[in-house]
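re: ur question from yesterday

yeah so i grabbed the chain u mentioned. its 179 aa long if i counted rite. heres the sequnce exactly as i have it in my notes:
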Amino acid sequence: MTTGTFTVRPLDPLKDAELLHGWVTHPKAAFWMMQDARLRDVEREYLRIAADEHHHAYLGLHDGAPAFLMEKYDPRYVELVGLYDPEPGDVGMHFLVAPTDRPVHGFTRAVITAVMEELFADPRTRRVVVEPDVGNKAVHALNEAVGFVPVREIDKPEKRALLSFCTREQFMAARGVAV
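ran it thru and got these structure tokens back, copy pasting raw so excuse formatting
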């Protein structure tokens, strides 16, 4: 397991855009669907998110250094409207680990664990909802490792996605913590 401290802070769409641009256009971020984005496209996208009361972006830090992007959203209003029946306490999530030339074994799993801990730190969060591309096998395995259960494939405007859910209890059980 990766050591160190994970924290998140609200993303600053203008100050963080150049950093994010390098991440979202990197070949390893193909499923983020921003490969051809210009810097101003990244600024515009994250300014849009910042203006949306139901969608929030955060810069994730590992020992104080930028390491990942985290988004949380209310699936009643963003991303999944009309694609499933949301329950009270549902929170949608996206995450992207910064590309690196020196991958650390277990780091991405440590990041998704930190993201889930952050989401479940809010007592109103009862279940986390994700909708990764059906072809993103690596993220499906990570999701399952932290307790997500795939429900079904859904068609979104931009992709065919695997709708999956993780309750607080499933997350704790996946971590080996008694509930």
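noticed a couple things. Residues 107-120 form the longest helix (14 residues). also The two ends are 22 Å apart (CA to CA).
anyway ttyl
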